[in-house]
Amino acid sequence: MSFWLIQSLNSLALGGVLFTLAAGFSLIFGLMRIANLSHGAYFMLGAYVGLSVIEAGHSFFLAILAAAVAIGLLGCIVERIILRRLAGNSLSQVLATLGVAFVIADCSLWFWGGDPRPVSPPSFLAGGVQIMGLTFPLYRIALVIFSIFIALGLWVLLDKTKLGVMIRASVDDRQMAQGIGVPATKLFSIVFCLGAALAGIGGIAAAPILSVYPGLDADMLPIALVVVILGGLGSLLGAFIGSFLIGFIYSFGQALFPDLAYIILFLPMLIILAVRPRGLFGKISA
Amino acid sequence: MNRIATVIALLLLLVLPLLTGGTYYTNLASQILIAAIFAMSLNLLVGYAGLTSLGHAGYLGLAAYISSWLMVKLGWSHAGSAAMAIIATTMIAGIFGLIALRATGISFLMITLAFGQILWGLAYRWASVTGGDNGISGLTRPSPFGLDLGEANQFYYCSLVVFVLVWIAIAIFVRSPFGATIRGTKDQPRRMSALGFNVWLIRWITFTACGFFASIGGIMYVYYHQFISPHSLSLANSAEMLLMVIAGGAGTLMGPVIGAALVMLLKNVASQYVDHWVTLLGLVFIFIVMFIPGGIVAGFERIKNALSASK
Question: How much is the pTM?
Answer without folding.
Answer: 0.87
